[in-house]
Structure to design on (208 residues):
């Protein structure tokens, strides 16, 4: 059951993150290949860096379905472009889902490699957030993670919740589902109540 849950998590997370990247690329009028590339980098970027840091072969190099799933995401955006590109909330929804699920995947894989929980939280955050950073760089936007938005912070919070369930003896599925739900809830609450990370202002600005 746990393995099946993780596979479903990876598929949904990959599709969601790929759609978020392709959706932004479409809004920037990229061609199909460019949009696919942005979607693929969004979906595999964070996990690739995670695997390199763990000393593992990047996951997509041993399982080609990630490339196919990104192609499916491109088809979805092409067919539903009218709804996915014009509605601003669609990016937030898919990006949040991908973020939450990839945090879970990053934490789980890091623990399987025998690293401590604090390292797993860092790797989960990298898995979830770095793909979005690369996506934003490719479309020439300031990375979302470096703005006031609660983004990487939500990943860290989700990892701490995962740790708490683990210490409490909860099942793996409970750990993973609660972690993902926590990331999603924090992102939704932050959007609703305009929560943000304080800005580090230039000293010169304070003297104007």
């Amino acid at each position: 059951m746990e393995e099946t849950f993780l596979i479903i998590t990876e598929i949904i997370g990959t599709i969601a993150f790929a759609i978020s990247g392709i959706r932004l690329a479409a809004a920037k009028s990229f061609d199909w290949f460019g949009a696919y590339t942005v979607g693929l980098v969004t979906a595999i970027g964070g996990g690739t860096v995670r695997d390199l840091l763990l000393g593992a072969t990047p996951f997509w190099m041993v399982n080609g379905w990630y490339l196919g799933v990104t192609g499916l995401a491109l088809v979805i955006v092409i067919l539903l472009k009218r709804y996915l590109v014009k509605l601003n909330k669609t990016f937030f929804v898919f990006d949040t889902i991908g973020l939450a699920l990839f945090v879970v995947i990053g934490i789980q894989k890091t623990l399987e490699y025998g690293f401590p929980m604090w390292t797993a939280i860092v790797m989960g955050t990298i898995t979830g957030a770095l793909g979005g950073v690369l996506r934003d760089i490719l479309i020439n936007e300031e990375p979302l993670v470096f703005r006031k938005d609660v983004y990487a912070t939500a990943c860290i919070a989700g990892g701490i919740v995962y740790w708490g369930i683990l210490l409490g003896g909860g099942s793996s599925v409970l750990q993973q589902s609660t972690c993902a739900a926590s990331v999603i809830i924090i992102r939704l609450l932050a959007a609703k109540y305009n929560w943000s990370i304080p800005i580090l202002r230039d000293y010169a600005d304070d003297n104007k």
The two ends are 60 Å apart (CA to CA). Residues 2-27 form the longest helix (26 residues).
